Amino acid sequence: MSERPATRSEGGGDGPTPAESRPASYRDLTKAVLYREYLIFVRYPANAVGGLVFSIIFFALLFYGGRMLAGQALSDSIEGIIVGYFLWTLSVGAYSSISNDIGSEVQWGTLERHIMTPFGFAPVALLKGVAKVVRTFLISTVILGIMLVITGTTLQIDVLTTVVVAVLSITSVLGLGFAAGGISVLYKRIGNWLNLLQFGFIVLISAPAFDLGWTRFLPLAQGSALLQRAMREGTHLWQFPLFDLVVLVGTAVVYLGFGYLVFQRATRRARRLGVLGDY
């Protein structure tokens, strides 16, 4: 009588088990991307600390230089400046995490390899952006604490409200990062324009100060207004008017969807033109 073939669990075979041969899921991709971001952070600490030091020095120059020039006027608005700077560091990190990452893939010639994965490059880029946003959020929180120490200012920080409003605010910036990344796939070297847009975030964050109703539909504007109220006045998430929250969520979804669509169409056009792997 013939013997039954031994399985791997019985020690008689070297083929993969069903658990080992299953296709990778988005959960696996998320874990891999987050772990990759963690490794980059711990293996290159000098670069991470350098970014933190630069942000603190830039704010210190802004604060002490402004106090010398504006005096009491700066002191009266310092809380708004701190909240705005906190949101700006978050938005720059979210935007550059996608736009710069896509630009680097184009420069290195590895973009096609990502697009050929079962997931596609857009989901991978989005998860990379989310991972960098998590890291940026932690770093920006440290910067926020140091800013409060430097200025001697106190803010009313409700963790739930701050995190929800900040995340929804920078989601729209992730959409801009996708759009900018798609354009870089087509036109390659546009780094100067990408960097210029980062300073445009200052205008968007400052928009609520001008009380222009239509600016609430721009990226960051509505989030900046709600974050100011949350951190300066102690307003909780459930105390905001429903319309303000709908606008915040709507702008996040619309701009993220728009940026994703631009990226998809730009990469398709680059493939048709045969310039996807060129630099």
Written description of the protein model:
With 279 residues, this protein is mostly helical. 75% of the residues lie in helices and 0% in strands. The protein is built from eleven helices and no strands. It has helices spanning 18-21, 26-43, 45-70, 72-76, 78-108, 111-115, 121-151, 159-187, 191-206, 221-233, 242-273. It is globular and about 55 Å long. The N and C termini lie far apart (65 Å).
Radius of gyration: 23 Å
Beta-strand content estimate: under 5%
Gap between N and C termini: 65 Å
- Order of helix and strand elements from N to C terminus: HHHHHHHHHHH
Give the total of beta strands: 0
Query: Structural class of the helix and strand makeup?
Result: mainly alpha
Report the mean per-residue pLDDT as an integer: 77
Could you state the oligomeric state of the chains shown?
single chain
Query: What share of the residues lie within helices?
Result: over 70%
Q: Uncertain runs with pLDDT below 50, 5 residues or more?
A: 1-16
Tally of alpha and pi helices: 11
Based on CA inertia axes, which overall geometry fits?
globular
Biggest sheet features: none
